[in-house]
Fold this sequence. Notes:
342 residues, mainly beta, 19 strands, 5% helix
Amino acid sequence: MTTQLDCSVGLKKETTYGTGVTVDRFPEFIDESLAWNPTFVQGAGMRVGSRVARSGRRVLAKQSAGGDINIELVSKGLGIFLEALFGTAVSTTVPGQTGVFQQLYTPTTTDPLNSYTIQKGIPTLGGGAATAMTFLGAVCTSGEFSASNADIVKLKTSWDAKEVKTDVAYAAPSYVVGGELFHFAEGAITIGGSQTPPTATALATGGTTAATIEEFSVSFDNKIDDGGFTFGGAGKRNRKPVVGLADVKGKVTAEYADTVLRDAYLNQTALGMTLTFLSTTTIGTSAKYALQFHFPDIRLEGELPKSAAGSPVKQSIDFTVLDGLAAGSPIYVALVTTDATI
């Protein structure tokens, strides 16, 4: 027996694009919008006595699938989403910390991205069994991280899939044990100053503490191509998509306590930015669960401060992440966890 709360999402990396595997990783998700995306074409030939489009002249000429999965960021079980988004993932034991691993994620420089089988389970009304819809050849096209004021850190991933099937057996969920949510009270951000990128076993360090930031968000778009629909593919994509020039943009909301960000915007100063969420829970000997975003080179896109009718003045500051060619990667995401594998 079920309730309408008993919805599930599971996923697993595929060996061969579009060849389904049994899903075995199940996030606690907020919502999803995974759907079938058909392209129907209606014949336009005229026929005497027929004034309405004819059912016998309607064809399914092309199809794909996909949508979004929105999750809260937890210290365990997160790696599969980060690897799917960025493509490059390394997990290393933290020296001197038994059972503690640092996972480091950077944008891939090699085509193609990994593909995944994703299955969602949706129960029918009245306590019926979960019905399975399985998406094959799913590639993560983009992701958006958000750290709102007094809230949990979230990630919305978007997926492009080859097809959806309804004849695959439902895989009952099994969830990671333990783990903690990353949230606003754990966060600290540095902007500017001398910053050292993270390594395989150490988080990024340095920089100037920014004590006026209220909210943060950043999006990473792989800019995958929309080709691969070729003869012989039955109207489905016949190959993995390839990546394009990634687009990385973000936003911070800051109280106007000094002119540092205003002047950096006006002068288009190259700034490093690091946002770290550090748990209070000890793992290993003295380590903590941690989630860190590091951008070696950003440019601010705005804005000048504006009066606020007597309320504290705030700036909504967009930024673009660029490749300054000085660091090993234009973006790093580091996760300190007790997960031995990604």
